[in-house]
Design brief:
Length: 383
């Protein structure tokens, strides 16, 4: 079987959908399934590349716009883009088209599905509500394309029940199944040790990692950290980069905690693992979170977890058993949970141990198993 994983974003960009697609591709390759990743060319003209042994093709995805100049540009670019997509299809001849995170990539995949008759699977990762730009509220084309794709697809998945509920409630989706994210339990051995770009001394450390955007709630974490009753040596590390970073730096100063907060920027995979292993507490403070791979990574590290109640983590985490749940918009409650976990090492040890047990349910092997079962159903229903 040949599978085209059609992702809204991929290497060199970091993020959940990029990691999901890359790990599924590697797992398929290991099972002898021919796989190619087709993703959006953001203007870098990266062409075709081998990324960690996976064939990756960066394809143009122009969409129409309202302005006259943009409309002229779209009319000029569309034939070339469509030829590129058809050339990719003829060269690889996939037996199945699998959209990972619907965007312009999904529009072109849907068109290929109708043109070629190849079965289509659509997997949503929360792009309909977790995008700070609210693209599905602003773009009628993307909204209409998603509705059509969900209707015509041979199978639909969401990374959490919350995602499927949103697709059903706002985008007319019928039946869908949850296929969660996964984690590589042996990643530390594969990537090796790393030196952290900040002092990893024994001071109590609250760690948060992710794209530094408003939706991730790092500003809420700063407020809670400033309010929490923590040792004066305690520090907060927020790893990642994004458009909100300058605002967070200013906010830390406004709150008077700038000397207790570290912004190391984007961390390598080895640094993420090392940082988690050294942390006292790992926090996921998102305003809304479709799933949260960081939850799985925290469990894998054996460190205690505080996760948002607003979204997918509440479906995964059993409060008080393998993590603590809190509404991050409730500053008082969030600060109290931070205080409790930092001041109670025994509680942290129990939560961390149970997290290591829970995470074994979420491996990329199991994600691949679920997808392959769906592929069989999708291809049978298409015949």
């Amino acid at each position: 079987m040949r599978v085209a994983l059609i992702s809204s974003s991929y290497h060199p960009y970091p993020g959940g959908v990029e990691e999901h697609t890359a790990n599924v591709a590697r797992e398929f390759e290991a099972r002898g399934i021919e796989v190619a990743v087709w993703t959006v060319d953001r203007g870098e003209h990266l062409g075709r590349q081998q990324v960690d042994g996976i064939d990756v093709l960066y394809l143009p995805t122009p969409l129409p716009a309202r302005s006259g100049v943009a409309a002229i540009r779209f009319a000029r670019d569309l034939p070339r883009a469509w030829r590129a997509w058809m050339a990719a299809f003829r060269a690889f001849r996939p037996d199945l088209l699998h959209v990972q995170c619907f965007g312009p990539n999904g529009i072109y995949a849907l068109a290929l599905h109708h043109r070629t008759g190849v079965p289509l699977v659509v997997s949503s990762h929360g792009e309909t509500f977790a995008d700070d730009r609210g693209i599905f509220s602003r773009s009628r084309l993307l909204r209409a394309g998603l509705v059509r794709a969900l209707r015509d697809a041979n199978a639909v998945t969401g990374c959490s029940q919350m995602v499927l509920d949103d697709l059903a409630g706002r985008f007319e989706c019928g039946a869908g199944v949850v296929v969660p994210n996964g984690v590589d339990l042996d990643e530390a051995a594969r990537v090796g040790p790393a030196t952290l770009p900040y002092d990893d001394a024994a001071a109590p450390t609250v760690l948060a990692i992710g794209r530094v955007e408003r939706n991730k709630g790092f500003d809420l974490l700063l407020h809670a950290f400033a309010r929490a009753e923590l040792p004066i040596a305690a520090r907060l590390v927020i790893g990642g980069d994004g458009t909100e970073l300058p605002h967070l730096v200013r906010l830390a100063g406004d709150l008077g905690i700038e000397r207790r907060v570290v912004f190391p920027g984007r961390l390598s995979r080895a640094q993420v693992l090392a940082g988690m292993a050294a942390a006292t507490v790992i926090a996921v403070p998102s305003r809304v979170e479709a799933f949260g791979i960081v939850v799985l990574e925290a469990w894998r590290s054996g460190r205690p977890l505080i996760a948002t109640t607003l979204g997918g983590p509440a479906e995964l985490v059993t409060d008080g058993v393998d993590g603590l749940l809190v509404d991050p918009t409730d500053e008082r409650a969030f600060a109290a949970v931070l205080t409790r976990l930092v001041s109670d090492p025994e509680l942290g040890r129990r939560l961390g141990e149970r997290g290591r047990e829970t995470v074994t349910k979420y491996t990329w092997e199991k994600v691949a198993d679920r997808y392959l079962e769906l592929y069989g159903v999708a291809r049978s229903s298409h015949e």
